[in-house]
Amino acid sequence: MRRPGVDSTSIHAEQAIRQGSKSFAAAARLFDPATRDSAVKLYAWCRHCDDVIDGQSLGHGQVEGDRGDGAARIAELRALTRAACRGDPMTHPAFVGLQEIVRTHGIPEHYLMEHLAGFAMDVDPDVRYESIDDTLRYAWRVAGVVGVMMALLMGTRGGDAVPASVLDRACDLGVAFQFTNIARDIVEDACIGRVYLPAQWLREAGLPVGDPAALARREHRAALATVAARLVEAAEPYYRSSMTGIATLPIRSAWSIATARGVYRHIGHLVRERGARAWDQRAATSRWDKLRFVARGGMVALLSRALPPRSRAPQLWRRPV
Known about the structure:
Layout: H1 8-20, H2 22-28, H3 33-54, H4 70-86, H5 93-105, H6 109-123, H7 132-154, H8 164-184, H9 186-191, H10 199-204, H11 212-215, H12 221-247, H13 251-274, H14 287-306
Helix pairs in contact: 1-3, 1-5, 2-13, 3-5, 3-6, 3-7, 4-5, 4-6, 6-7, 7-8, 8-12, 8-13, 12-13, 12-14, 13-14
């Protein structure tokens, strides 16, 4: 039954986040209603694009998904996204919702195109991840730019325009999230032919390069765990950098983002602690863990306001736009 005052586009977005990401869904409940509605609509568009590319449904069935003709799928997503930005009539709820948030929050089209460029990397057979900079470029496109768009949705606690420094910190958090996701999903990704780890790191660990199926074999798990731990550690400076950005957000948005930060960072730590057993069962947080991070997120949101702002570490990778 439809709730009074809730349109079908919002219902679709709520379903997408509830089934597609339990971690972000828990944190998103903390937003004020208007921000939550915009945030879940952005998520629904991102989720839809990911599903189209991987032939899956709400993030499930990736291994069995049909990924044929990826270039045509990217072209269609780009065309529909541009049409939504122009204000053309849309029918799919993911693009109806996207059109609403573009109109309401002024999300620049080039950020949306950057996100689709990340999916294009997934379907381009010539893309290689030789160094950590290549992995960072991918993380920016599939997650860092989403952090930037989320910052534009949330605004600042003073209601001013979101400064570039805050967008940088939002990008940092997105990159940290993606590093965590990559570490958690190494074996699952390798099973469908995708490896986002730097080839340089794999060679240093004595692992096969250019053969995802071989990388996924159980005999490589101990060495793979050392590379995963290295990626989890590489995420830490980006998680730390994001704290200054959290302090600038409206309090409920700060609470939500601090909660998501705690949940994802914990997942990365689980991967590191499990070592070679990290991929026997997908690393995830329990319901109790989520409640704990909700409480901790509230404290972090409040404490962040009392801390003096810190300069962004110069060695951190910087978003291109």
